[in-house]
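Hi team, as promised in this morning's meeting, here are the two structures we talked about. I've kept the exact order from the run log so nobody has to guess. The first one is mostly here for context; it's the second one we should focus on when we meet again. Sequence first, then the predicted structure tokens.
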Amino acid sequence: MGKFLPLGLCSLLSQISLVAAMAAINNMIQRYGAVDEIFGQAQYAQIPMAVVGIVMKFFQIVISIAVGMAAGCIPIVGYNIGAGRKDRARRLFTYLLISEAIVGAVATLIAELLPGQLIAIFGAANESVYYTDFAVKSFRIYLCMMILACVNKGTFTYLQSLGKPVASTLLSMAREVLFGVGFALLLPVFFGLDGVLYSMPVSDVLTFVISAVLIAKTYRELRMPQAA
């Protein structure tokens, strides 16, 4: 019980922290949208929340793919670590990080190059020009670091598969609570509604700095001889 409960608790805390981050973002969108020159007007007041909802739907689709790939590694990592084949676990980690980066890169290209088409998928063809302009800007800013977001998510889950719930949980909490909530509250003070959008890529970049340290540490540990 003591060995597997912390691993489940890691996922629980990760989901709770994600909810906290989204609550902070939604609150800041409402607060700073209300004082925006355009979106402060009654007829346009719902645009920021609606647009960010669309952006987050796309984000969740991509992240679900990233999580699915990482979760698929869990039994394979456990089997090979148990069999004393750290070399295979290390090689799998490399494949996972490359795959996560590819998924994130493709998602970033789609968000940057085809935001109009993404908006149309969600039935926004007849909306105002303010809606379209804000939606395009939101996709391009909010999702510009999807490649790092996917790599970070893969790192969270891989650490969990190695039986390191503390490191995985702290990394996840740093992303969603320390950076996600923190920058969602801080950046709008200086940049208004745009600050909410910038909170996402800034959080992903800073989280990746921590992830890079943990990735390097994990590679070193997987090169060490297996204990008898």
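And here is the second protein, the one for discussion:
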Amino acid sequence: MEPIRFILNETDVTYDGDATARLLDVLRDTYHCKSVKCGCKEGECGACAVLLDGALVNACCVAMGAVDGRRVMTVEGYRETERFQVLSDAFAELTAVQCGFCIPGMVLAAESVLSHNPHPTEQEIRVGLSGNICRCTGYNAIVNAVKKASEEANGLW
């Protein structure tokens, strides 16, 4: 079995395990990326959302063999960026975080939305976040936080 080489949070890594293992499990168990959570195991809740070559995906639906030669970004890596700080500040200011379970996936979904359109409408934000379930805040505070981040980004996206 060939090793799987990929870039995880801007670091080259090699995985020597089962190519059919779920990216979700490998990120949590092998690389200790605890922001990637197991919620539904079906790709419906967004708790395991990561960026794969910049595209938002649910890690529970991705086999390790599919990440060979690709870039995987989790919140552990994303939090080192200026973009994260803008989103984090907006989420905090508008109290868009309660329990925090959904927030890593929401933040990466927001990054995906803003990277495709730096000035989205409310509807575009809602559509972009729609694959992530939040059981605490509802969605209005989160949508407003993404909108605020887009307004205060100063060209980051």
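Starting points for discussion:
The radius of gyration is 15 Å.
Strands lie at 4-8, 11-15, 49-52, 55-58, 71-73.
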